[in-house]
From TrEMBL:
Function: May play a role in fatty acid biosynthesis and insulin sensitivity.
A GO cellular-component term linked to this record: mitochondrion
Record keywords, A-Z: Fatty acid metabolism, Lipid metabolism, Mitochondrion, Transit peptide
Gene3D superfamilies: 2-enoyl-CoA Hydratase, Chain A, domain 1 (3.90.226.10), Lyase 2-enoyl-coa Hydratase, Chain A, domain 2 (1.10.12.10)
Record-given protein name: Enoyl-CoA hydratase domain-containing protein 3, mitochondrial
CDD domains to which the protein is assigned, alphabetical: crotonase-like (cd06558)
SUPFAM superfamilies, A to Z: ClpP/crotonase (SSF52096)
Cell compartment(s), UniProt: Mitochondrion
Coiled-coil parts of chain: none
One GO-annotated biological process of the protein: fatty acid metabolic process
Organism: Helobdella robusta (Californian leech)
Pfam families: ECH_1
Gene: 20210105
Length: 299
């Protein structure tokens, strides 16, 4: 059985993901903002910048509302993430202001809105976060401040997360008698069970160092170095072979849910397929010839 996923199949998956959201049968239609054809696009809630390195930087840009993941913010984020770009290598999600994201906008979840609207918000958030593992490039969170509830879920859903020393994380829904059940899905897959339940049952904030120890984030840096370190990581990933990154990410998330024997079977097949990629043979030859490889980024 072949586990190598082609670009066309990934494109089909993206299209299916967008179609599911756009054709929601619930009372509130879920729509993406129209993607811009330029390398940079923005609206009142997010900005999206694609650069020459293949790095897409998406910035949550509603600090007045603590970058809450409102329905509109989620739609904009989904649109920015899924916007087609052949040169895409990595997606970085960051935020403006002292709060990375406070999670859902609780005004949208109040009794002033019908239950169908509540379902729209939660379902869109869940579909978006669940889609991260299927996106064929790494997604990195760059956390400069507080990330709570669905904001913490966003961090946990990313493949990599780097945080400033002053960053804090929490799932405080229990304090409002709204258990962070959906954030708990991502959290419980990123950190050990007892760490996740400690956060979910108490609502306590944890520090960046504690988040690193739990496994919620990948690295902690001094606040003044956050931007530079995130850039260093993104550029390093952008220099790798695109089809190999795609293959590796896909295989990692496939094998993680399998028993060890099945995981090794999948990984073995994947490595054999990896060797058929031109860039893999170029990398081997470059190593043996003691020269720098030249990737063509084709499968």
């Amino acid at each position: 059985m072949k586990f190598l996923i082609t670009s066309s199949r990934f494109a089909s998956r993206f299209h299916k993901f967008q179609t599911q959201l756009l054709t929601s049968s619930s009372s509130q239609q879920l729509k993406f903002a129209s993607p811009s054809s330029s390398s940079s696009s923005s609206d009142s809630l997010t900005s999206c910048l694609d650069d020459d390195y293949g790095i897409r930087t998406i910035t949550l840009n509603n600090p007045r509302k603590r970058n809450a993941l409102s329905l509109e913010m989620l739609q904009s984020l989904a649109s920015s993430i899924s916007k087609p770009w052949d040169n895409l290598r990595i997606i970085v999600i960051k935020a403006t202001g002292p709060v990375f994201s406070s999670g859902h906008d609780l005004k949208e979840l109040s009794k002033e809105r019908p239950s169908s609207y509540h379902a729209d918000v939660i379902q869109l958030c869940s579909k978006l976060m669940n889609s991260f593992k299927d996106i064929p490039v790494p997604i990195m969170a760059q956390v400069q401040g507080l990330a709570t509830a669905a904001g913490c879920q966003l961090v946990a859903s990313c493949d990599i997360a780097i945080a400033a020393k002053s960053a804090r994380f929490a799932t405080p829904g229990i304090n409002h008698s709204l258990f962070c059940t959906t954030p708990g899905v991502a959290l419980g897959r990123a950190v050990p069970r007892k760490a996740a339940l400690y956060m979910l049952f108490t609502g306590f904030q944890i520090t960046a160092d504690e988040a690193l120890r739990f496994g919620l984030i990948s690295e902690v840096v001094a606040d003044e170095f956050l931007e530079n370190e995130a850039r260093r990581i993104a550029e390093s990933i952008s220099r790798s072979s695109k089809p190999v990154i795609k293959l590796g990410k896909k295989a990692f998330y496939q094998q993680i849910g399998l028993n060890q024997e099945a995981a090794y079977d999948l990984a073995t097949t994947t490595m054999v397929d990896n060797l058929k990629i031109r860039d893999a043979q170029e990398g081997i030859e470059a190593f043996l010839q003691k020269r720098q490889p030249k990737w063509n980024h084709k499968g």
